[in-house]
Amino acid sequence: MDYLEVEGAREYVARLDHGADWRGQIEAFADDEGIDAAFFYGLGAVQDARLMFYDQDDQEYEPIEFDEPLEVVPAVGNVSWLEGERFAHTHVTLSRADGSVVAGHLDSATTFAGELYVREFDAKLERAHDETTDLDLWPL
Ligand code: ZN
What we know:
Elements: E1 8-16, H1 22-33, E2 38-46, E3 49-55, E4 60-66, E5 70-82, E6 85-95, E7 101-108, E8 111-121, E9 128-129, E10 136-137
Antiparallel strand pairs: 1-8, 2-5, 2-8, 3-4, 3-7, 5-6, 6-7, 9-10
This protein binds zinc ion.
Zinc ion is lined by residues 89, 91, 105.
C-alpha cells in the first residue's frame, strides 16, 4: 500500500442543483474553489443514473443505465486530477421505492436534490495510468 500524509484544509457543505449532473456539479465546484484533493460524502435523490462497472478481466468499464427516481444513500468520493481536469471519483448506493438498492461507480445522474460535505486536503493528487489494473490511480 502506498500512502501520503495530508493535512485537512477547508471544509464545505453544499446543496446540489435540481436538474444538473451530480458529478459534474462537484467538479465545477472544485474548479471554482481550486480544490486539488478532497474527499466528500453526499446524500439526496436523482432522477436517473448511469453507473459503470469495471470488468477486471476485460479491463473495460461497462455502463449500467437506470431511468427512474432513486435515493442516494449515500454517495462517497474524492476529487483529484485526471488528464488535466479535476475528476470527482464517485461511488453511490441508490435505493428504489421498495427499498432495494443498486450501487456502483457513478458516471452521471440528474440531481433531484442533494446535500454534500467536502473536506479538502492540502495536497495535489493527480491520477496516472496503472499497468496492472489499466486504471488511473494515485501514484503516491
Ligand atoms: Zn470507481
